Queue: 3 jobs
Job 1
Amino acid sequence: MNEEVSRYVPVHRVRFVTASALFDGHDASITIMRRILQASGAEVIHLGHNRSVGEIVKAAIQEDVQGIAVSSYQGGHVAFFKYMVDQLRERGAGHIRIFGGGGGVILPSEAEELHRYGVSRIFSPEDGRRLGLQGMINCMLEACDYSTVAGFGDKPELLAAGNDRMTAGFMTMAEKRVEAADAEEAGRLAKVFEEIGKLAGAAPVLGITGTGGAGKSSLTDEFVHRFLQHCPDKRIAVLSVDPTKQKTGGALLGDRIRMNAVYADRVYMRSFATRGSRNELSAAIKDAIVTAKAAGFDLIVVETSGIGQADNQIAAVADVPVYVMTSEYGAPSQLEKIEMIDYGDLIVINKFDRRGSEDAMREVKKQVQRSRQQFDRNWQDMPVYGTNASQFNDSGMNRLFAAIMRKLNERNSAGGWPSLPVHDADPAQTAKRAIIPDGRSGYLSEIAQTVRQYKRLAKEQAEAARMCYRIEGALEAAKAAGDEPAIASLERLRDAHAGKLNETSQKVLAGWPAMVEAYQAAEFTTTIRGKRITTELFSTTLSGLSIPRVALPAYEDWGERIRWSYHENRPGEFPYTAGVFPFKRKEEDPKRQFAGEGTPERTNRRFHYLSKGEKAKRLSTAFDSVTLYGEDPAYRPDIYGKIGESGVSVCTIEDMRKLYAGFDLCHPATSVSMTINGPAPIILAMFLNTAIEQELEAAAAKLGRPLTAEEAFEVKEHTLRTVRGTVQADILKEDQGQNTCLFSMPFALRMMGDIQQYFIEHEVRNYYSVSISGYHIAEAGANPITQLAFTLANGFTYVEYYLSRGMPINAVAPNLSFFFSNGLDAEYSVIGRVARRIWAVVMRDKYGADERSQKLKYHIQTSGRSLHAQEVDFNDIRTTLQALMAILDNCNSLHTNSYDEAVTTPSEEAVRRAMAIQLIINNELGLMRCENVLQGSYLIEQLTDLVEEAVLLEFERLHVRGGVLGAMESQYQRGKIQDESMLYEMKKHSGELPIIGVNTFLNPQQKELAAELTVARATVEEKEQQIAGLLRFQERHMDAAPEALRRLKEAAVGGGNLFEELMETVKAASLGQITHALYEVGGQYRRNI
């Protein structure tokens, strides 16, 4: 589509901060942009998703960048970008250029408004089509091709004020001194740093170095966290170095993304690229250290880029050098080659929960003893520490921090560093229990083997049956001819092959005629959960033909009958390839009524509108981004602008009551789905309490008196046993693609496990404790095979975790549901079939699960990524095709996106059209009279096998990386998703992947956005209403909330069931209050590149 665009080559060293906006996890586009920026020669400080204006502005000033690039897809963008402009100007950094994008979410009129306010450029989908990716990057580079220190002034005394802008400017000058173009410039800068040196204090330097991937950044962040806690009157500077790409000159300065503690007022952080130094430090690092000392920092931390065995540059600049490694260093003899074992004051074996770490501790300690010739000391006393820096409040990190403080006091006669108690406990004994036990780490490989073994069995049984069929035919001919010798021989041969048939195969062959006959009758009776249900098997068309509800194959060959029964079978029969139920429920379409906008009252009205006239109330709830990230509404502009945008604002249990008012939450035809993950345990506790309160009020009204304690208890338990619905709560996929993780991964998984344990204890059988989601993995850019493989792998990981906690498989599996996207790729036509077959086989043959547990149930949402702001009316065509594939594949529920969702929260008119898509398919499309249309298609069967094998291969790739959690640690899933997203975007922009109305079949008269399109935004009144409601709730519970939060934290620390306690906490505390209390005891999520 676009001609190849040559990249702009900047004159100056251009630096960018890139991020996604606050409460926004959509980082696929900003990831693509930062990669192209790097490839174009820029140094990029990537902050990742969910970044506030304060964090972005602080990083931009401290890093002395020329540009900021932010993606914003969750609404509130006008307030967000204006606030950023204001903050930069207030802090004397108005020169920094701001760039943004948000697809069709940012309207052209809003983009123009932001341009007038001071934002350099908001890129639109039309810009992407016209300029291409490289063209947009060129615009950004050209606008930022200037010096940030031109006319900066040579007044080092300004550093004493502790101003970040001044500190950053002089550090940039340190880099310019290294690359000075002429002697005069070099001389001038030398004098500047000579003066700075006179102002420098005696702050010590802590050096942190180690191999790439050892976890230096996480360890540094944990150190800073403890520094702030134990040194309340001291300031710290972190100078971090990452390598420059020699070919392009660009660099990914990725340490800051891992840092949660560096945004405190007493912390300064600056990222350096190695540029021409050819080692793990920037050539400017010594001047940068002097600058930090002159700026009055009490401690300077220098973190190097990853090093090799022979590197030891940190020892030349650090007073206390620390070497960080892992247990994966090879043979013990390799330790003798590591220079830093000789030079490091302290040696750290990070990621100590990995296999082999205890052996590594012994070998490293002995090598340190040999290296230092300290044979008079016990080797066990060598300064080697085992840590798990990625874990919250890790005991090994506590010991390391105390050791560093002791070293700083030893090196400084004045002392002044805190003396902390010595913890002598072996970190191997105090390490947190693995989420997946070591003995179960090969579960994905075992699962792949289980499926392949089943397929081999199916093939063997089919071959044996086919031979029996052929022999039986020959036997009939021999009998007709009266050939007794041949008859005897053939009977022996038949019996030999028949002996290979197992009991299942024998039943299939024996029962085949009866099965066919049963489906040719007028009616079919099935028993589901003890209920006998009679179904009509034929319907008559207007032409007078009878269409079967289930069509069976007309196979005569016994081998084909066996093959079909093992691979396909009829709906409702193992392995459930065609569906988990014998027939669809005619009284209830699979459609869900999806809503979420503004206040709970407004969304409640939308729910009543959508479900009017429907017997089944299948309510699917979208929450605003403030709620999704566990925060309360507030007046701060970057929060205020997002209240009630793209979802409903819910921050208290009172909001939850308003949201579902007028719906009987325990009615058998009512089902409530909540799309929320990070704070899901809190929101779920609010919902279940709301359902319980409804039933308590109804029971009291019926009796005409207050309930006794025993009666109230029984009503509560009955409610929990009855309520239907789903909460998404899938934290694994959040780390891999969706990005609404709030808490550290072990803590988040513990809360998921506590929910499931609570469900088991209270017999919650009709509500799904998790919706294991591939939809958001697909939305982040994954192709259909990756979506399916990662989602199923996540599901099996939850199973293994719950089993490790002692939960029975048949108590766990019924509470698990799945959620997939349906795009237009061919593979989407079979993802349900493949998922059901793999799950059923593994549940039965590996885990010994019962029939109910074998049945995988899943929800489909049509692809949001396939909705485009250009030619928005075409979106309904795409959605119709996607919905058709989902219904043909017998999904259990379906949400069809509205055509205008590429731009805004759907209008009522757009939602009505989206619902009509399903209604027309189900009620007007004659083919849908049959419920197993896909069965019998050669292509569908081949695709099913191909996709299934591709999924198993992905399981094996995950296995060799340590399973799902091990792969997450190395960012395998995230990297694969980003690569696939990049492939899609490149093909879309080049036109190689045709998208009608976007890159081909263009309408020259089409405006970028239809002028008449209704755009939904939360009103100022609604935002004010939510804040006011929150403040009233908090005021009413100001006495009860502290005690409720204290009990919650006690449960977290003491190992109690957190969800059981949350059921009480939500009655007195708001969402934000609870989230921040849990941060204190569970740790905050640490982002990754």
Note: The chain has five domains: 15-143, 203-432, 443-567, 593-990, 1020-1082.
Job 2
Amino acid sequence: MGADELVFFVNGKKIIEKNADPETTLLQYLRKILRLPGTKLGCGQGGCGACTVMISKYDQEQDKICHYASNACLVPLCSLHGLAVTTVEGIGSTKTRLHPVQEIIAKSHGTQCGFCTPGMVMSMYALLRNKPKPTEDEVENIFQGNLCRCTGYRPILEGFKTFSKDEPCCMGSKCCKNQTSNEEHVLDVAEPCDFVPVDTTQEPIFPPELKISNGFGTKFLTFKSERVTWLRPVFLKDLLELKSKYPNAMIVIGNTAVGLDTKYRKAHAQVMIAATHVPELHEVAVDDTGIHIGGAVSLARFGEILTETIRDITVFGWEYFVDTSPFRPRPSPDGYGIHDNPDVARGWPENCFFGRHFLHQNEFVFGYKQAQRRENAAAIVNAGMTVLFEDDTNIIKEMSVAFGGMSETSSLALTTSRRSVGRKWEDQLTSDVVQWLAEDFPSPPEGIGGQMAYKRALACSFFFKFFHRVQLELCRGPGMEGATVSPRHTLALPSLPRSISRGTQVFEEVPPDQPKHDAVGRPLQHSASLQHATGEAQYCDDMSLVDGELHLALVTSTRAHAKILSIDTSEALALPGVEAFFGHEDVPGSNIRMVLSSGEEIFASEEVTCYGQVIGAIVADTKTHAQRAAKAVKIEYEDLPTVFTISEAIAKESYYPHEAKAVIKSGDIERGFEQADHILEGEIKLGGQEHFYLETHVARAVPRGEDGEIEVFCSTQSPSTAQAIVARALGLPMNRVCIRTKRLGGGFGGKETRYVTLIPVAIAAFKLNRPVRGMLDRDEDMLISGGRHPFLGKYKVGIDNVGRFKGLEARVFLNAGNTSDVSPEVISASLQGFDNCYHIPNIVLTGVLCKTNLPSNTAFRGFGAPQAMLVMENIIEDVAVSLNIPSHRVREINMYKENDLTPNGNRLINCTVDRCWHEVIQQSRFCYKKEDIAKFNRDHRWKKRGVSLIPTKFLISNERFLEQGAALVHVYQEDGSVLITHGGVEMGQGLHTKMIQVASRALQLPVHKFHINETTTSAVPNTTATGGSKGSDLNGMAILNACKTLRHRLEPYIAGNPGGSWEDWVKAAYMDRISLSATGYYKVPDTWDDIYVPEGEQTTQRYYTYGAACSVVEIDCLTGDHVVLRTDIVMDVGRSLNPAIDIGQIEGAFAQGYGLFTIEQLRYSSEGRLITNGPNTYKIPGYGDIPVEFNVSLLKGASNPKAVYSSKGIGEPPLFLASSVFFAIKDAISSARAESGLKGRFRLDSPATAERIRMACEDQFTRKCSPNTHHTLRPRFIDV
């Protein structure tokens, strides 16, 4: 059987592929064959949306062209026959014409790192192609399959809503409700009139050939590769014959299940049968019995059909429970059918999959679901329940209750259903059902996914909701006169509300006399925002392949702690395309890479100490071949004892050496406890967090073939550290190694020290003398690279009767992982930030680094301070509950004031925390909210609201040797344009934009005269890592100094020609042989004015960034679900260099902190393997998680003499303000517990997941669903 030609279109260009590979995805083909890198690889699992494209097809049945936003990472190339693909490059360009979608996301400040932006653009574009004037609700829903780790989503939504219906006020954004004082300014979102309107007549046309020809969808197709044959039948009989002939063949429709099974579960099939063009599988039939749906009907189409059917018929009680917004994941126009999954199908009657009858008048059916995140998340438990009553009675004739997630397969609660028959629909039934459900699901120690106590509580809660929903319907029916349902119960029936999001952003306007060319303080859009929006922004893996370039894949450990007995590479090296294997013996220089004082092996030599530790690397001609060969390397181990958790480390005393800086003491702790009226003790645990930058670790090394020179393009926050480590590994002096970084697709600390890809790539390129690149897949990156440190805080606090601190003793434990990396510095920062905003006269803080067999944890936004501050705020909450004092009063009583000293000796100068605190109280209407929430909680039994006020104080400081920055500024004599190179790395925080604004003021030039190309060690050596919120401070001052030098050189020419232009002065200086290039250097001054410095130590001047937040939440006590109704933030950023960027940093940091404290939960297997290794299992916040109302204000009149132009570092400080959500949730839980007679302190560990919220709301259901602890089986998950 010969192979067919694959014919499809990309951006209007016809593609004829004669050797279509069934294992190739559309994303791979776009990036590597067609060289269209705007479509990004973010996860490869269809869960992040970075790879979104629009796929269009002509639907002959409907006689229309249908457009679909699809995840290119899951779309098989062979499925595209007869289809048209549009990528971000195909809709607009900075070189030709921008599409309005691209323009608006840039003007609305909706891009930061920009890696996710093309996917956002294409999701919105596809919506507009289908509906040119969408509603705001449709705009918000369309992005449920797109993730962003930087922005916090608000500016993206706000910008794209300009495409929806007209403003409710004729004045648009100039509505009086948006006005502020003359000194303040509301961040503008571009109005529709500010950009080219959407013109459907100017959109790319659908290829006429695909519409005219009937052959694309009616021909049997065959495609073959070296391993797989793809068959596409067009008749049902052919499909059945093929499945009979190839019983092990995989049937593909949308490829969401098959694609993931093939990649991650090693479910390789030699034959794949595409059932997408079999007409019978697309049929929908409606008759008197119900609706019958073909297995290949997409869920989006399914939802349309149900809506149409309901509109056309009148049937009592008809409801349906399908999400009709574009389904996530979005693989292809063929949608997501019910795939051939024996785990799903086993145990279910056949008719469960193929239809649903119309309901009788006395029959009711409802569905329920609870997931880890509110959108685009698989259910922890879902349920479908139906009940049929005897005519005109409340006596059950028939009932069926089914659950997913309660066991290995979807399950019918047979005992419950059977025993309910003949019973009356009355309150006693709910108590009986709880007992029967326990028999149906007897709770093994760990069922599917674990969480069995929570799952059983959910099952009971779902039935409780079902019971009262049906009871409400029965009360409206015949024969039930006089029956009532308690409003406190019926109010629990709907899901938590989620209104259209809204918000305000307020900042100080620049003075009216500020020159127009002076950009400092202006809310300019990100300097690369248009390149982000058009897909033109180049990231490391976007670089074009050159002839002979190779690809690298890592060979990693499958044991957490073991001796390496042997490594067999013979099978791997024999595979097609494989060039070489590299291990520890192949390292030209040192196999030890140093991170500060910590050393660890590049390639494990004799022993592995964590699952995922790098043992070697395979190099091959393609990434697919390299990864395939890496999995074929056979390693024999001898297992050794393991330690995974902090509790295990404490029990086994598995610690890294204790250091003096891990202790902070101030005052007399014993005296403090003696003076206290009350002594409290407690502890709280915080889970870790994955960085989840959208661009994973990537590097590309190019040997130059002379004197060992090598050029390395990489995604790193610390080019000079990378340079030193590569040089050491290759045995070269540093002047032979050049590190080049254009931009990062997010960093957050995760690309500062963990060079798991960079060094192997450099070694391979050096040894083979050929270019080599390597980019980790998402699951590899999460497995290997580490994240935020899990944290345990134990404390003893003494207070007086009004809640004033007298003494505090605390011990904190960090799970460092298998190496110390920067953990000593992290624990030092944790202790320095522990006090947050509170004066504690007598304090002892001790930090302990736990040595475990998990991948080494590392720097993460906040650098340990958020974990420590959460412990401090939990102490405040415990004090408030114990003394029966409002927690905000306890905070006010102890809050720092000007000139107070912190425990580590810092004197607080320009302390604005009190101002931020009182302004956010006023802005949020806190006092009114407290009263409103109290009333809501009195009226609701099963839904509760909570509110919390949280301040923050964040130290902006580095180790002394890191407090330096450098820059190089060139002015070109021909046109006066300026090129800036500095030591900072652009990773989405807008650093380059701010640096251009600094130079704009210094040289008195408009911003269009400046350009920043990249960060490279050949131009600026000895760079300080970009992190610690110091990027603008260090590099901004360096640029300022360089510009001052240039301005000084030009002064004679300016004085001699005061009416001349910049270009005239530059030309005159050049003709006079004056250097138009200047270096700038800055070191933070040493100072002892406001800080206590122990004898023999040195330090530099430091400052704090302050802020405060108020959050209001609502929880569903029966499920643990929650929604953030409102958040108000007031932040002191000094004199902002760019308010739009600073507000973006505040919103983005808040969103990341919200994930840390609520929904992001890392889970490991009992063998130490990370299970939550991608967006399908690890949930970062999505669009539906941000506050419904999100208001951010920059503190007016603030300044900071210790940084460039009185600005402040802003990247990290706002993150902790998201703990206001955590404590608002705890406040709501307290109200729920009071309903059950539970008063006083209770423990809520972080993150406050749905499970923890539900189980903390103790009631009659949770008490009967306690976990089964009487077993000896190993747990499914480890809570580290």
Note: Residues 1031-1056 form the longest helix (26 residues).
Job 3
Amino acid sequence: MASRKMTFFEMWRSKKERGELRRRTNQLRLDPSQMSQLLGDTGVRRALQNSRIEGLLPPIGMEVFRRLTPASLRWIEQPHEAEEMALEMSERSEEVTENNMPKQTSDLETGKPLPIFFGDPSHDLLNTPLEELDPFYESQKTFIVVNKDNIVHRFNAEQACYLLSPFNPLRTAAIRIYLHSLFNFFILVTILTNCVLMTMSDPPAWFKVAERVFTTIYMFEVIIKVVSRGFCFGKFTFLRDPWNWLDGMVISTGFLMEFIDFGKVSVLATVPRVLKIFAVIPGLKTSVGALVRSLKRLLNVIVLMLLCLSVLALIGLLLFVGDLKRKCVIWPSYEIDNYTDYLQDHVNYYYRSGSLDALLCGNTSDSGRCPEGYTCLKAGNNPNYGYTSFDSFGWSLLSVVRLMSKDYWENLVEMTLRAAGKRFLTFFMLVVFPGCFHVLSLAVAVVAMACCEQEEAAVGQLKQREGEFGQILEAIKRSEEDEGASRAALSPEPEKKESVEGPDRDQRACSPCKSADCLLKWNCCGCCRWIKQRLNIFISSPFFDLGVVICLVLNIIFMCMEHYPMTERFSRVLNEAHLVFTLIFAAEMFLKLIAMNLDGYFRVGWNIFDSLLVAISLLELLIVEHLPCVLMMRVFRLAKWWPSFRMLIKLIWTSVRALWDLTLVLLIMVFMFSVVGMQLFQQDYKDNVCRISVDCHLPRWHFNSFFHSVHVIIRVLFGEWIEVTWDCMEVSSRTTCLIFFLMVVVIGNLLLLNLFVTLLLSSFITEAEEKNNLQIVITRINRTLGNLLRKKTQLNPDQADNEKVPRKKYLDSAASHELVLEVQDRGHLTSESCRAPTAEAEETAEDDEETEIKRYPEDSKEQNGDTPKDCCSNDGTGRVWSNLRRACFSIVQHKCFEYILLIIILLSSVALAFEDIHLQHRQVLKTVVARAEQVFTCLFLVEMILKWIAFGLKKYFTSTWTWIDFLILQVSVVSLAADRFGFSELGVFQSFRTLRALGLLRAVSRVQGLKVVVQALVRTVQSMFDLLLVVLVFWLAFSILGVNLFGGKFHYCSNETSQEIISSLYIANKSECLLLSMEEDSPDILWKSTELNYDNVLSGYLSLLHLGLSADCVDVMYAAVDATWGIRSL
């Protein structure tokens, strides 16, 4: 029976186990004695019988790695011919099934390292043709070659190009060259050099010569591969590997472009040259293979996505065809000769201030209206150069894709609703957005499933490898036990002699290391050891770490004080403080070096980090140059004593290592699309820039240089692609631009999605760490303060006996905690746990009360007052009161009471929704809402009184949920009183009335599922606060760096009258701006700062928050690009 596949969340939860499994399997090794037993001991082989390992190992007495000889090749050819005949017979008879065929061993596939049970080949067998190790290929005329990294490479044993046998010296030399690391390094350097030359927007005259040199090198690589592997006939030849097709494309395009000018089509020669990087680096080849497999799984989803988008595009075509051409056109007072030309003239349209497109309108009752003097007519083109519309299936499909990607979608929805009517908002809310969301969710699910399957397969191989290693060790142990039993009579004296001689031999072997040991450990004299011991005690003290942390925090505070502008005195104080803290940290490093010596000091990773910071800080003092990176890195020293901060850094580092290959693939794709975009559209942007710019200057986003092309591609990866696509289609070919940008969007999103899923599945382990010195000293301080306070407030035994003993116990937080645990364990709530805890507690309230009264009769008297008999008697007013409480208790515990309250809560919330801006003009509705508010307040007041009578005031006010009900009710009562006495227009009461929106919180306590969720959220507040503090400190480092880099540089010269920003090309600093203001005699020319800047740490926080959380983060990028760098000298 096949095992059940793990879900994504099960795989996500097993990150720790998978990480430990990987570490264990990477450490699996067999020592030489174990290898000799595995290969030459019959007892071990007998124990491994009927296992996969036994079938892969050679017979006893035969070498594992055997050279390929003509005799062995003839021995392979004989069964090969017999197998061909048998295969022909089987094809005719159709009796051989697929299950009867031998299976390929996954551990011996091409490009994988040798399994551990084969050992390492000798040096003379490296890069040499060897006989096959996999039984699957023994009869297929192949041989293997193992390089120095023990990576298996498989070749065809047939004659390469019908000329070169495996023993031909030319082919053997080609194989050695092909597998040599220097050859791969040379090809990689050639590709990278070629890529660097591709980034030149204006290539020099010798560029053609360099291209010919690169083509020659690639041709030499192809010749080496063809000579070593063969060309196309047979397995493992040159053309049988799809990665080698890139070489064929590079060579063919290189030669064709020498004789034919392909124009823009020549950009196709760039793509295979960049993709060759994947073929050279094995790790990238594996990552690309995984991406291709996930893309195959996505084919059905892509087809479904296209069908859904086509349906939505057709619906949009039928609903909104021609609507986006309706514009506000001024109606002339004179007679028009040519009505068509008049409608096509954009001068006659109404434009909003700062808008490039005319104001849209509609002729329905709920569509947009035109200003006075203008008429709504179909005129001119569609918005955005005519590319935003539903007039044809293609443009409608592009609009739907734009909605699905959520790129500037609000503008499209706004224009459509203004032209067609607000009623079509339901089309977007109920059809477009849910449809696109479900399609994208399906794509995410398929990619996550593919990644889970690949990860599960890798885990299966790791478990198999670990199990086989355990089998080998068990077999060797069993064989040694059998041999030990047969040799029990042997004398142990030789072993004793060896053990006696061992220390002398070790001492002689270590004698050359005495000088190094003395240099690194400083144990040459007793005085040095005495000083080290005293200093070691000093630096190991928790209070020493406390002092370092205090200095570090003070240093961070001084760093946060830097701002713009600063006085010279304040700047001098900060520099002196920086010098003092640098000397303090240098002294800390010096003391630790003496106490721990060089060897012990540099064995600790944090000490290496500290020493680097101190060295760079001292170098900064020598060169008198301000290095802001040093200041930023000091913040990260807090992670040494802060476990949460350290966990965040470990998480980031682990994620970077896990995503290294995929991140490199993403960077290569960004580079490739940037180069292709520059080569495709560079000339078009130069020639047709006036179509997209009024002043005929290039916009910020263009393909005129490699640097700007990278910016455009990164912007597309962040989801903003439609605007640059419009500009591209306006200056170049529409088809080319659409194909290019859609490819960037699809491939980029696929890579980002795989990055995200891999990040979730990557292994990082939060190990339980011991308390550091800072935590120890804080614990001691808290314990000391607690002891001091306890001595002041300690009571004597007589006072303790006279304390009141609690008499009633209802609910505590343990009930809700058990409920949360049940949800976590079972995934749902049982019927017993869903019962109202208040009701369950009240069922036993009377019994508990009677029990407490029996135990503490005096306390019962004190609690019930002077005449408890009257309250609890069976006659008179006591009986009436008791019956009344029982009746109220039965009412509030009834299910119908809870349901009625839920309905009242929902109705009161609905009534609040009618209090909009139009309520003042609807007197009837206003009266109904006011009366409803009074009725609901009275009902909630009745509910509170019933619970007071049923539970009592003490029980009622011991629950957090009833406190919430009480406070919300007080808000309604105060609001009604303010309306009654005419104070409702006061600002205080208007603000107080907004708290009525909290009325929905009443429903939380009455729905058990919501109650559990809220309680779970409350319990996570402390962890969330700790995480928020860590993130704020992490951002503090970058805010300090931003202040040092950009402080006082996000300024510009502005003309307040014309609202014009004067370019930094003309006005570079504040002095020039003020000089211009004096020359023009205009006080409206001012030197201003951008809203988001880095003039101080708090402003830097706001800018970082905008960059990290806002979709529109280009404002900060524009300010950084336009930053004026000549200000601080003024």
Note: The CA atoms of residues 232 and 823 lie 61 Å apart.
